[in-house]
Amino acid sequence: MNGEMSWLDNFVRPKIRALVSKKELPDNLWRKCPNCGQMIFHRELEHNLSVCHYCKHHMRLGVTRRLEVLFDDGEYRVIELPEAVHDPLRFRDRKRYSDRLKQAQSGSTASDAAVVAHGRMGGMDVVVAAFDFSFMGGSMGVAVGEALVRASRLAVVQEAPLIVIPASGGARMQEGILSLMQMPRTVIAAEEVKEAGLPYIAVLTDPTTGGVSASFAMLGDIAIAEPQAVIGFAGARVIQDTIREKLPEGFQRSEYLLEHGMVDMVVQRDELRDTLIRILRLLRNPTPAAEVVALPQPETEDAAQEEAPASAEPEPEARPSAEAADEGTPAQP
Ligand SMILES: [Zn+2]
């Protein structure tokens, strides 16, 4: 009897379940928006680049889709990265680090948390280093540092701008001090691009924290952030507990950082590609598109007063600004 039961349980039931479930709809067809709670059909969510169309909440976007959306016609090439040292400290917590790595690699097309791709954007050559948050929280170890270095070298060789798109919880603690060493390493990588006179642009996505935010991520010539992304060094709770003060609303979010001058712009995901192309065009082709026409010489004070009666009623509100403008003009020789 016992044997029969286990045979039923172990063999027959899974078989039946497998047969039935094939015809059933998989339960991941709908996703609940973590912000507004609406259920969104997966195809719609994919079409909207993982942005909730009810409340515009930006969910995390996979690295493949991210690259596909940015490059012209979705075409790009991923470069092969050199194999980094695996598990240098033979680290083990509840699991061996080497096992964690293998598990992450089996669920990914990449060998670690950063992917380097190149292709064209608005007809311009660009190199992109993008993070895969689903790979061990996008944590930065030796392999990710290596990816950033390769990306910067590729940009320099191709004389192309480098766009970095972090999505990371910070340094990979399983690699200890070696992961921290990736901070100066990636800073140097970013510097190499800048020294070559090439644009270095950071697109900060949710989350950009820890050692990643404290290194290459914050060095963009232009720092763009996705809406509502968490960007900061230490977690809000840690800071709150340390300073024993309530943190302001929206602390460590893109919009707060924009208000306080830490990022240059907050851009919706569906406008990101066009925005990047516009910025790159401005940075790459500084010559104006039209003929430069000299501005007319500013009128002398007398001439301005003579012309004043032309308007029916002098506008009192207009005066202070006009005076301010006069004070601002440099004295004529
Ligand atoms: Zn929503």
General description of the model:
The structure is a single chain. The protein is of the alpha/beta class. The chain has two domains: 21-59, no CATH class; 62-284, 2-enoyl-CoA Hydratase, Chain A, domain 1 (Alpha-Beta Complex). Helix content is 39%, strand content 13%. The chain has 13 helices and eleven strands. It has helices at residues 2-23, 42-47, 63-70, 97-106, 142-158, 176-180, 182-195, 210-213, 236-243, 254-259, 272-284, 301-307, 318-328; strands at residues 30-32, 39-41, 76-78, 114-121, 124-131, 162-165, 200-204, 208-209, 222-225, 231-232, 265-266. Strands 3-4-5-6-7-9-11 form a seven-stranded mixed sheet, sandwiched between helices. β5, α5 and β6 (162-165) form a beta-alpha-beta unit. α5 (142-158) packs parallel to α7 (182-195). The model is unreliable at 318-333 (pLDDT under 50). The protein binds zinc ion.
In short:
The chain has helices at 2-23, 42-47, 63-70, 97-106, 142-158, 176-180, 182-195, 210-213, 236-243, 254-259, 272-284, 301-307, 318-328, and strands spanning 30-32, 39-41, 76-78, 114-121, 124-131, 162-165, 200-204, 208-209, 222-225, 231-232, 265-266. It is of the alpha/beta class.
